[in-house]
């Protein structure tokens, strides 16, 4: 999920549970403009960092432990990452989202879109 600076959802791509989210990051960032892209350690990859740099934004992503030379990040700015967590928390107030009632992805995506609209305008 991609959220703006206020924690409102912008884009969502539903993936299988076993697939890593970093694979969808380029599609989420496509066509976006930002001063900084804030993400957690799971998104620490050289390809994603170069994509963010080509956007003209700063990558505020902590380094994985497996990285031999850690890349520093802006810690005060990284504290803003909780906004995406708050966005997910607001979506989880909808029981249908939290329990994943819908078996078909298209139905689930439709409801998530409806819930995201509710968050945007409340």
Provide a compact summary of the structure.
The chain has six helices and four strands, in the order ββαβαβαααα. The chain is mainly alpha-helical.
Named CATH topology: Nucleotidyltransferase, domain 5
**How many distinct domains?**
1
Number of helices: 6
Radius of gyration: 15 Å
SS-derived structural category: mainly alpha
What percent of the residues sit in helical stretches (DSSP H or I)? 25-40%
Task: Give the helices and strands as they follow along the chain.
Answer: EEHEHEHHHH
Shape: globular
Point out poorly predicted stretches.
Answer: none
Mean pLDDT: 88
Cα end-to-end separation: 19 Å
Strand order of the largest sheet: 1-2
The CATH class, by name, is Alpha Beta
Task: Describe the overall structure.
With 122 residues, the protein is mostly helical. It is built from 6 helices and 4 strands, in the order ββαβαβαααα. It has a single domain, classed as 2-Layer Sandwich (Nucleotidyltransferase, domain 5), CATH 3.30.420. 39% of the residues lie in helices and 9% in strands. The chain starts with a strand and ends with a helix.
Keywords:
122 residues, mainly alpha, Nucleotidyltransferase, domain 5, two-stranded antiparallel ribbon, 4 strands
SSE layout and pairing:
Blueprint: E1 2-3, E2 9-11, H1 25-29, E3 36-38, H2 46-54, E4 58-60, H3 75-78, H4 82-91, H5 95-98, H6 105-120
């Amino acid at each position: 999920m991609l959220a703006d600076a206020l924690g409102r959802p912008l884009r969502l791509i539903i993936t299988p549970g076993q697939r890593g989210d970093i694979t969808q990051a380029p599609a989420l960032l496509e066509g976006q403009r930002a001063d900084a892209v804030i993400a957690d350690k799971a998104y620490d990859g050289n390809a994603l960092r170069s994509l963010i740099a080509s956007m003209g934004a700063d990558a505020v992503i902590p380094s994985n432990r497996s990285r031999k030379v850690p890349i520093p990040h802006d810690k005060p700015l990284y504290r803003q990452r909780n906004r995406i967590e708050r966005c997910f928390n607001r979506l989880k107030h909808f029981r249908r989202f939290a329990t994943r009632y819908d078996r078909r992805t298209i139905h689930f995506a439709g409801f998530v879109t409806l819930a995201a609209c509710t968050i945007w305008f409340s």
